[in-house]
Design goal:
Elements lengths: L1 H22 L15 E5 L3 H18 L3 E5 L5 H7 L4 E4 L4 H10 L2 E7 L14 H9 L3 E7 L9 H16 L3 E4 L2 H9 L7 E3 L21 H10 L3 E5 L4 H17 L4 E5 L6 H13 L4 E3 H4 L10 E3 L6 H7 L2 E4 L6 H5 L4 E4 L9 H10 L2 E4 L2 H13 L1 H15 L2 H12 L7
Parallel strand pairs: 1-2, 1-4, 2-3, 4-5, 5-6, 6-7, 8-9, 8-12, 9-11, 10-11, 12-13, 13-14
Helix pairs in contact: 1-6, 2-17, 4-5, 9-15
Amino acid sequence: MGRFFGRLRWWAYRTLYKIASLRNPLAEPSQLPQIDQRSIWVFVSTIGELNMVRPLLDQVIQQHKLPLVLIADRTGYRDAYSHIYPSAHMIELDGSVSAFQDLAISAPPALFIVAEIPASLSDAPCRLPYAALRYARQAGSKVVLVNAWLYGNTPDCTMDHVERAWFNRQYLQSFDLITTQDDRIRSHLISNGANPNTTFTTGNMKLDAMRDLQASAANSTCPTLLESINQSKRPVIVGGCVTEPSGVHLFLSSFVRFRVHYPDALLVLAPRHPENQALMTELEALLIQYGLQPIRRSEHGDHPITASTVSILLDTFGELRDFYRCATIAHVSINHNVLEPIALGKPVTVRGNWERNYPSYPVFKLAKESGAIQIATDADQLAVYWMNIMKAPQEAARDQLAFISRHQGATHRNLELLNQLCPIEKTR
């Protein structure tokens, strides 16, 4: 009887979905691949999720040697995904029920990996419908959710509300294996229907993705500039993604206070959206206002700094990691990535009041609980943190690397569980 009502509910949902689609047609999905053997599906909403799952995925691909199908719910990542996995089939789907049904026919999966989100229907800022899991299972696939995290989002529309109300329990029960970042997420998922016998806390795989970060920047576009910063032996404070006005003022005010005690200190301001010339001009004016005459990275080129260089405005793309390598201390703007400087062994300071619906929040939460970051509420407190770090910067660096080492290993735990609970068949 339960199965009958389940099929009836699914039929009713699909009917409602078709009616809703007449009013708001979805975009046509990208061309579906035709694969004559089983494949590995991976739902990765953004490049962040792909980088997180990559250490696990590389090992799964090596083990099973099956074609890889990367599924995204938005456009814009095709080139980035293809750069990492050039032979993968890249599919951009908008959550259409029929699109996943067609994909299961054209590229039947042996294994479907959902990378981190959504851990519940419509919970995260991405779109993966229950239909994706339903049709994958009907095709004989194992379905797993790895590194699960909850963001607490609410459904955006009526159909999403209906989908969550009718199928969220079935969504969680469709997974053959769920791994979570902490026990709170595990308990929540189990209370909402996940199988407690196949739901495990394994830690955060993002920390495993940082293993190779210590290597030098072999492909740096400004090696002479970076080397001159290292050779100067000056205290270097790098502000990562510091863009929002109150955050910029806090950062600059703190540096002015810090510079009273360390007059040779060098500041690097790395805002988001360096392509925004109006923003860069505004930030340059602010640096001058604070008495921190800047050089623009784009105009300075790959030339050494001098003893008179006070600040660098990083108005270029893709170089923040290289400047983090040169940092004595990193200050990361609210709701941004603290893991990268921590993994480089840099002491990290931040502002408080982070929002849990940002992808950076899980690592922030873990780092906060572990004491790997220091949270400042005002410029005086932030400057004091920096001065305290300067008393023993090498010790602070060792503590950061110990934090990374202590929390790594989630990928290995996930792979063991995957091989144990989700053996896959290669035949169609």
